[in-house]
Amino acid sequence: MTAVQTPETWQPKDYASDQEVRWCPGCGDYAILKAVQRTLADIQADPANTVFVSGIGCAARFPYYMATYGFHGIHGRAPALATGVKLANPDLDVWVISGDGDALSIGGNHLLHVLRRNVDLQMLLFNNEIYGLTKGQYSPTSHAGTTSPSTPTGSLEAPVNACAYALGCGARFVARSVDTLQKDLPRVLERAQAHRGASFVEILQNCIVYNNGVFGHFTDKTVQAEAQVHVVHGEPLIFGTNRDKGLRFNPARIAIEVIELGPDGEGTDEVIVHDETNLRLAQMLAALEPPMPVAMGVLYCNPADRYDRLVHDQVRAMRADKGLADGEQPAIDALIKSGHTWTIGDA
Amino acid sequence: MDSSPLVQGDPSRRELEHAVVRFAGDSGDGMQLTGSQFTLATALAGNDLSTFPDFPAEIRAPAGTTAGVSAFQIHFGAREIHTAGDELDVLVAMNPAALKVNLEEVKRGGLIVLDTGAFTAKNLEKAGYDSDPRHDGTLDAYRPVEIDMSRHTLEAVRPHGLSKKEGLRCKNMWALGLICWMFGRDRTATEHWLQSKFAGKPQLAGANVAALRAGEAFGETAEIPTGTATYSVPRARIAPGLYRNVTGTEACAYGLVAGARLAGLPVSFCSYPITPASQLLHELARLKHYNVTTFQAEDEIAACCAAIGASYAGSLGVTASSGPGIALKTEAIGLAIATELPLVVVNAQRAGPSTGMPTKTEQSDLYQAVYGRNADAPLIVLAARSPADGFDTAIEAVRLATRYMVPVMLLTDGYIANASEPWRIPDFDDYAPFPARFHSEPADFAPYNRDPETLARPWAVPGTPGLAHRIGGLERQSGSGNVSYDARNHQDMTDIRARKVLKAAEAIPAQTVEVGETTGRLAVVGWGSTYGPITRATANLRRAGHAVSHIHLRHIWPLPANLGELLRGFDEIIVPEMNDGQLVTLLRDQFLVPATGVDKVTGKPFKIAEIEKAMRAHLEAETS
């Protein structure tokens, strides 16, 4: 880039860098890249004010393909780098791009803390349930029994549910979508971007080389409508090709169950109305797995104070407490001459 | 060693050139407070001084055990004082464990003030004494002064209506009062401090002041056993100016703030608690109004990464730790080297490896600082020589990090971090600003273009229109910064990273000689906190007619451009270090000079006598 671009209207292509995209042909990351560029155009994001930060993995190459500021960091630590960026400049719009190994294995600790602190950024986790860049080992989201080069006779570990983990970490915004949901994904990303505080979005992403079709039983077009429930705040949790099924709360089992609705919608009054501010409901929705419908959309959104602002509020408060005017720099001499001082004379 | 008259047993008040006093007791006995108050009184009396707080890793080890002994040592004198002192003239032992741990540091004939009230059978057993050291000959070589401080303290505070437990907590002030009397120190400043510390608790303020006064009165009213003297240590000939006491931690914190001001940058200080570096976080957290944000991260790695992210976004990113924490930050430091961002990494070194001895000092991270990363990953390494020197060294770290867009590791150690010394406060106007420049011109911008003079790349911070670009840990094409696996490019980029750091040698002062001539028989080369003992030992040997010189390095990497030539002007070179021989290897490697090491890794600073002994052994071997 050699001159400041200021088109009247930013198009998705304006957010693409001049670098050749080098994911495998057919990788779900292409679709996510497209959805993110679409989202930025939809909100007319200023590239100069937008920063993509990543760790290591296939997903982590993402910043190189964006015509914004970008920082490709080290494995698992993108949330920490991004926290530093926001500490230095809370006005920047920061997106963290991560994968299941990066965010939930080596970087699980940083994910916990960036969510709990509620740093104002978007944390996108591309979950393909496999280590792609290192050639196909099982990941912390792989289902038990996954055969891979490192587990030729099947993996032995229970997987972590990314959205449930995020809620457990205290995230104030948790959403889920799929790489192929090109209509829904930009809407979810737009909500995440608009949310002040840490927004966690799990994007189920197909690794065509090492884990092809792992989500097919609920993401294929033919089964999607029956196998997913798309949650919308204030609307009943209804799904199915004919929108003839609903989710009901069973108090005796303390669980969500599926009910069939009548041809004229009989039973709809028993269906849970989605309340995205309800943490308990979000936790139950996040945990739904086949044969229950998998919940998509904004599961939880309940804003709270954001760390990066609070930090600067404290700085401002301390400055006010010291009687400093806007932009006034306290004297260094006052600092170094503080405490008990004494003078040695020339004598 | 010059022998102070204190050990000669004269009972009258005598004038001393210098003296070493150590207060020792349980970690809950308030020895650090006692020591710092005595330090203040001593500074106000015009002595030069140096202190050494020595405390256990356990916050509250079982009371009365040797593991829980906390001590504060102060060396003060009528001449320049560079060390906390080799041997104790006076030991104040508040219990048997404090006596046991510290006895071997006491000069033969030295004074040992004991609280006999604490010498119970139970406490003797806890300290591991089979018999009472007061009666079995253990103290024959010393002059014990046995006083039931516990009882005297309780009597003194009785009018203030404290419980016995609360009353005994004032014992440290009673001891302080006695030592103030012994050295003719004014207790007024301590009384003011007590009044303000216990402003909301007049009962405690009153009791502590009463204990302090009672200790002093006890000495004055000649209840003191025979053989105890009072002393005076005259004012030192100190350069005129405004002074304060400063710890290495405070000086580093002020230096970072001052350096950032000279660079025109806010500070983002990101760290994770670790002994002995945590104090820097505490200090800076109180200085937010100086455009400082502090971030206590979830771990060392996150702390370093957050500092890097902050630098990327236009702050001065600073992180701090000690050896094991620096090890964790290593990969991130490599990222800062690759992305060529300014970063200051403070390493308050401690005894290792692994957890080692967290509260004990060492200088064994020089290899880690200079070499300790994967691949060819050069950065700049500086070392502070004393607590007060932390100020200028931290400013230098900020200057070089921003000038060369490179991480700078600033080495201190557990001794420097905690110890204090009087500091002649500089005038901040005397420091030349070195404003950091953010790139803003989109024309011909590329993130890995270089300043021909410094080889630094432009600092283009997010938020700047027209400069959006991508950086990262993958090798980058020179200029464009695009990912590159090109063979020739990697060779070039590796060469540039090394050359850029070596170029810093052009912007640092030539190496000078601290004491002695620029050529001669023997050069003693040091770095970091060995400054004090080396300077004194060198001066002592020069007085004895030896052609010895002391050279002390602030710039460890790159080394000053004239250092090789300077070293070659000496017949022999010795390098005392609190490690197994690290700088000595670096010097031999860089200059092919016949340097030999003098190593000490006991967790304690060098004594002057130890360095003198090594120098003498070398001079004698050379002449034979």
Q: Can you walk me through this structure?
A:
- The complex is a heterodimer of chains A (347) and B (624).
- By secondary structure, chain A is α/β, with parallel strands linked by helices.
- Chain A is built from eleven helices and 14 strands.
- In chain A, strand 5 and strand 6 form a beta hairpin.
- In chain A, helix 5 packs antiparallel against helix 9.
- Chain A is globular, with a radius of gyration of 24 Å.
- Chain B is built from 20 helices and 22 strands.
- By secondary structure, chain B is α/β, with parallel strands linked by helices.
- In chain B, helix 9 runs parallel beside helix 14.
- The longest helix of chain B is centred in the middle third of the chain and has 19 residues.
- Chain B has a seven-stranded mixed beta sheet, with helices on both faces.
- The two termini of chain B are 24 Å apart.
- At the A-B interface, strand 1, strand 2, helix 2, helix 4 and helix 10 of A face helix 1, strand 9, helix 9, strand 11 and helix 11 of B.
- Strand 2 of chain A pairs parallel with strand 17 of chain B.
Short description:
Chain A is of the alpha/beta class and 347 residues long. Chain A contains eleven helices and 14 strands.
Give the helices and strands, then pairings:
The complex is a heterodimer of chains A (347) and B (624).
Chain A: H1 28-42, E1 50-54, E2 69-72, H2 78-88, E3 93-99, H3 100-106, H4 108-117, E4 121-127, E5 130-131, E6 137-138, H5 162-168, E7 173-178, H6 184-194, E8 198-204, H7 216-219, H8 221-227, E9 228-231, E10 238-239, E11 245-250, E12 255-260, H9 279-287, E13 294-301, H10 307-321, H11 332-336, E14 341-344
Parallel strand pairs in A: 1-2, 1-3, 3-4, 4-8, 7-8, 9-13
Antiparallel strand pairs in A: 5-6, 7-13, 10-11, 11-12
Helix pairs in contact in A: 1-6, 2-4, 3-4, 5-9
Chain B: E1 14-15, E2 18-26, H1 31-44, E3 48-54, E4 69-77, E5 88-93, H2 96-102, E6 106-115, H3 121-126, E7 143-147, H4 149-157, H5 164-168, H6 171-182, H7 188-197, H8 202-220, E8 231-232, E9 241-247, H9 248-263, E10 267-271, H10 278-285, E11 292-296, H11 300-312, E12 316-321, H12 323-339, E13 343-349, H13 366-371, E14 380-383, H14 389-404, E15 407-413, H15 414-418, E16 420-424, E17 470-472, H16 487-503, E18 520-527, H17 531-543, E19 548-553, E20 555-557, H18 563-568, E21 570-577, H19 583-591, E22 595-599, H20 608-623
Parallel strand pairs in B: 1-8, 2-5, 5-6, 6-7, 10-11, 10-12, 12-13, 13-15, 14-15, 18-19, 18-21, 21-22
Antiparallel strand pairs in B: 2-4, 3-4, 9-16, 14-20
